[in-house]
Amino acid sequence: MKRFLTALAPAALIALSSVAPAAAEKLSLSTLSTYLNSLGTVRADFVQTNDDGSKSSGEVTIKRPGRMRLDYGGDNDALVLVSGGQVAVFDPGSNEPPQRFPLSQTPLSVILKRNVDLNAAKMVVSHREQNGDTIVRAQDPDHPDYGYIDLIFSATPVLKAWVIHDQGGGSTTVQLTKMSLGGSVADRTFNIRAEANRRGTPID
Asked: What percent of the chain has pLDDT over 70?
């Protein structure tokens, strides 16, 4: 009997291995580039986790290339607008115009550019699979000092989250839910100067 069981063991192992689920594989950079380039208008809810552990939430609207709007929930009326190659941060507690800086100096430029090519030389720092998701760490290859962004994709693929790592070593995580694609969004939705005028903090 023992010899019989021993003889069966290899066959049993082969049978089990044939039905075991295959290990998840990371999606290729070409597949992810094609997916990002296919995105036109995107709307989603988001939860943002800041470097100090504090959280905020709201709605994000993306209109590629080059435009994004982050409306924060609650009564604070905080807003981040991206358009015209600039990022503007509207602080509801300030009577000053929005803080502005070039989009090109932030890792968000990686996903908002007209043609995303994650295969470009020195753009991707790491590319791995974790719990069925594909995680890509990317940077501006000409300016790695601007920080980098982790893009987290489901196997479908769908962009689930991003993590921005800034020049100072801090990080901000934005998790996306209830994503919808397509539809029309007016360009004025992203107009920094118009929003500043509406708030009574015009830009010189």
From this structure: 88
